[in-house]
Amino acid sequence: MIRVIIADDQQLLCEALSALLSLEEDIEVIAQASTSDEALAAVIEHDPDVVLLDIEMPGSTGDGIACAHAINEHYRGSNKTVRILMLTAYARPGYLQRALQAGASGFVTKDIDSKQLAETIRKIHHGLRVVDSDLAAASLSSGASPLTEREAQVLAASAGGANAREIGQQLYLSAGTVRNHISSAMAKLNAHNRVEAVRIARDNGWITL
User: Fold this and answer.
1) Residues with Cβ < 8 Å from 169, sequence gap 6 or more?
2) Residue 142: what pLDDT?
3) Angle between the 149-158 and 175-189 helix axes, to the nearest 10 degrees?
């Protein structure tokens, strides 16, 4: 039996996936979560075989990709291996690159049908990597993110309109350092202003809002 946790902030989708997967004889949904914090706590409590993680999920742990990294860190040095399957409604190439770097074993879009999803879970449970083919092709053509980790963090934090001082307080940086990171990100993305830089980075999946 493959023991699965589903994490998605859309409760109806989470419940629907759980109901559909529970029809499979070899898959058991043991927990559901709606935030990255709940997902990480559920993993620690239930020790699943596979975790389905939405990318754009709230929580202090971060988005789904950050949660994937935290889950892999939790098991680092142990004999247990948990496979992570990322689910997204947005086929953004940067999401795929970041998810694989975080240790995800699979990456599919939410329009996948239930039988394909079940088969994908089986494949990654047996150690295979499964990636949506269209998204893989787009990822190869778009290339890696030009942003440093800190530039991406600053851009994401600025998306809500916070000023440099407020962003600096959130990320423990000086206002001047924040402005430098934003200027650098704008130059790398060939953006005319901060708003455009955020849009370009988000559309490519290089940041998650």
Assistant:
1) none
2) 58
3) 100
Residue with tokens 């759980």: 18
pLDDT, residue 204, reads 79
The encoded tokens of residue 34 equal 């709606």
Summarize the chain as % helix, strand, coil (round to 5): 50, 15, 35
Helices (H), ranges, 47-174: 64-75, 93-101, 114-125, 133-142, 149-158, 164-171
**Residues 84, 105 contacting (CB under 8 angstroms):** yes
Which pair of tokens denotes residue 10?
Answer: 């859309």
Rounded Cα distance, 126 and 98, in Å: 22
- Which residue matches tokens 């789904």? 64
Can you list the residues of the chain whose pLDDT is less than 70?
A: 91, 134-143
Helix (H) or strand (E) holding 6: strand 2-7
Task: Work out the angle at residue 166's Cα, subtended by the Cα atoms of residues 161 and 167, and round it to the nearest 5 degrees.
Answer: 75
Q: Return d(Cα 59, Cα 203) in angstroms, integer.
A: 21
Integer Rg of the chain from CA: 18
CA distance 121 to 105: 10
Place of tokens 């990597």: 129
What pLDDT is attached to residue 177? 92
